[in-house]
Amino acid sequence: MTSRNEKWKPQQLILATEPGAALNVSQPEQAVAQLEHYLSDAVDAEVHVILSENYQDILARMQAGTIDIARLGPYAFALAQARFGARALVNSIDIASIENVPSIPYRSLIFTRADSGITHLVQLKGQTFGFVDPQSASGYLVATFLLQQAGLDAKTDLKGTFLFSHQSVAEAVSKGDVVAGAIAEEEFVYYKKDKGLPPIRLLATSALLSRGPLAVRPGLPLQLEKKLLTALENLHTSDAAEGARLIKMPEQRFVAAVQREHTLKRIAELAGVSYATVSRAINGRDRISPATTARVLQLVEELGYRPNANARSLHKANGELIGMLLPSLTYPGLDSIIDGIQTTLEQARMQLLICPTGNTPRTQPTARHTAYFEMLSNSRFEAMLLTHWSALDPTAMDLLVRSRRPYVLLEHDLLDKGLPFAYNWLKQQGYQQLILVTGTQSLLEPTLAQQAWSQLASDNLRLQDPGSNQTGWPQLLQQAEYQTTAFLCTDDETALAVKTYLAQQQLQLPILGIGNTRVAQLAGIPSLTFNGFNLGSLVARRLLKMLNIFIPEEQIELHFQIAANNSFLPSHTFHAASTQ
Q: How is residue 458 annotated by DSSP?
């Protein structure tokens, strides 16, 4: 083997771009030629630039010595460093702006179109999802942990696909080819600036990540490394601006990399958890979920990390408060739901603070609503419980997502399990036209209830939703086949209003409410009921999982029943084992 100190002779140098880098330029071939010309002159050797398609190929060829230098993401570089001793040559940093424009952070984003109806990661189950590359930190590894915290396994719960570039993922989400995707925030910003995006909703953001370097294979002559270092440090001042976009963002420049071994901080970044969580997982401390521990230990083994004495003594004081935003404190069964939440949180030594926001249209959030979001996002609150009434406020949710506070939606199981149960029960009674009527006194926000309802349609069943506005009902009822028509109302008060209206029209049609309140019982209206305590416990356990806090596993069951005439009709039990 040639010594690194031996006099270097001119040779061909192979540089590989990150996967998908060709999408950063309008004319890839010209950009490649421009970068090759600049680097060849600077290092006094022939430089050949290849547009890579995936990290797996780059790492294999670097290890074999057929790629000399490559732009790698942080996870791909960590693997290269651990597997065959690759070294970082330069890192990219932001060029100071004379306009004092803040730099774009490097972290992972999970996002969807604003019109997708998705407001929380848990709703992505069974949906199409775009990833960048199996060895991409921001486009896969960190994103999968964000999904895991929400109870989703990227391999089994999503219809995931690798698109092998950040821009391809952004384009797929933009066009609706996939429901959601994960990319680096800086790639998201540049794509939005260059090509535009429809209204987007952020679903999750990771902690800040270290950018990946331009790395060199072991054994590259030292003299060549020095020339490459100088050339790359001066690249941002050269005439090769278009070619430079193949290996860096326009507002960035390269600086010499500081060599470092794998640290707890690096493991934490790649695992998508805090420094303290990694330490506790390595040391076998309690209150860390088995899934999180397994993920951390897998990275530790994969990257060959060895903890030191200082890391073993790390400790972090956790906050103890969970915030809960509620539009109203009068929802049916709310006391039982809150009791279930508090009882579960107490097992983790955490407390619940309830913040009533007022029930207003999502397009006109109250000052109180906004103030609560700001308070909870900028304080020591560990996480938040929300309803869709709050989650559909895009400004407030963007603030919450960027604060990286975990949150869960209170009524998810009612939409996901309760509404289909009511639908199936009405269908079994022989009704062929079901009319959903939404109300403001329901825990179910009308937009999401309508969306969930529309997804239940079948060929032999007509689903209609006139909303709570009765002006369109006469025409609707004229078209209805009365003997096969039934109403589902999202709360019992709305069910009573529908019953009163139908009586005025001298019609007697079946009505089903939700909540089994005193109103339904006195009016003789059948109503969907459920175990509120268990619902609250399920919600709290989801939140604790997102916080990586472990409590003993327990089988939680949601019993959905139809209550009528002070008795219960045949029920359905939704078995939900908590997965900590």
A: B
Topology of 108-205 in CATH? D-Maltodextrin-Binding Protein; domain 2 (3.40.190)
Q: What is the DSSP letter of 301?
A: H
Q: Please, what's the b/e burial string for 243-269 (b: 16 or more CB within 10 A of its CB; e: otherwise)?
A: bbbbbbbebbbbeebeeeebebebbbb
Asked if residues 540 and 517 have their Cβ atoms less than 8 Å apart, the reply is no
Residue of 49, 188, 164, 36 lying closest to 111 (CA atoms): 188
Range in 224-228, 264-268, 446-450, 522-526 the model is least confident about = 264-268
Read off the pLDDT of residues 402-441 as tens digits, 9 standing for 90 and up.
777 888 889 888 888 899 999 988 888 888 788 888 888 8
For the record, the structure tokens of 162 come out as: 């690798």
Nearest to 435 by CA among 496, 522, 498: 498
Question: Residue 4: is its pLDDT beyond 90?
Answer: no
More confident residue, 270 or 563: 563
pTM higher than 0.85, yes or no? no
Distance between CA 311 and CA 264 in Å, rounded?
7
Residue 178, classed as helix, strand or coil, is: coil
User: Which CATH code of 3.40.50.300, 3.40.50.2300, 3.40.50.620, 3.40.718.10 fits the domain covering 413-532?
Assistant: 3.40.50.2300
For the record, the structure tokens of 369 come out as 């609503």
Strands 321-326 and 383-386: parallel
**CATH architecture of the domain with range 13-100+211-256:** 3-Layer(aba) Sandwich (3.40)
Report the CATH superfamily, name and number, of domain 264-312: lambda repressor-like DNA-binding domains (1.10.260.40)
Q: Where are the domains of the chain?
A: 13-100+211-256, 108-205, 264-312, 413-532
| Residue 8, pLDDT score | 47
How many other β-carbons are positioned within 10 Å of the β-carbon of residue 492?
Answer: 28
Helix locations, 135-199, DSSP H:
142-149, 166-175, 185-195
Q: Give the residue among 458, 564, 512, 562 at the shortest CA–CA distance from 572.
A: 562
Is 326's pLDDT higher than 90?
no
Reduced to 3 states (helix: H, G, I; strand: E, B; else coil), residue 231 is helix
Residues 6+ apart with CB under 8 A from 319: 380, 381, 382
CB atoms within 10 A of CB 503: 10
Contact 445, 387 (CB under 8 A): yes
**Alpha helix locations (H) across 163-304?**
166-175, 185-195, 222-233, 241-244, 264-271, 275-283, 290-303
CA–CA gap between residue 468 and residue 489 (Å, rounded): 9
**Residue 547 CB partners (closer than 8 Å, separation 6+):** 382, 383, 406
The confidence band for 442, taking pLDDT boundaries of 50, 70 and 90, is: confident
Q: What is the pLDDT of residue 254?
A: 92
Of 536, 534, 531, 537, which Cα lies nearest the Cα of 580? Answer: 537
User: Which helix (H) or strand (E) covers residue 347, if one does?
Assistant: helix 334-347
487 phi/psi in degrees, rounded to 5: -110, 140
Give the pLDDT band (50/70/90) at residue 575.
Answer: very low
User: Which pair of structure tokens corresponds to residue 534?
Assistant: 């268990």
Residue 540: closest CA among 384, 416, 401: 384
Q: Do 13-100+211-256 and 108-205 come out as alike in CATH topology? A: yes
Distance CA 181, CA 123 (A): 13
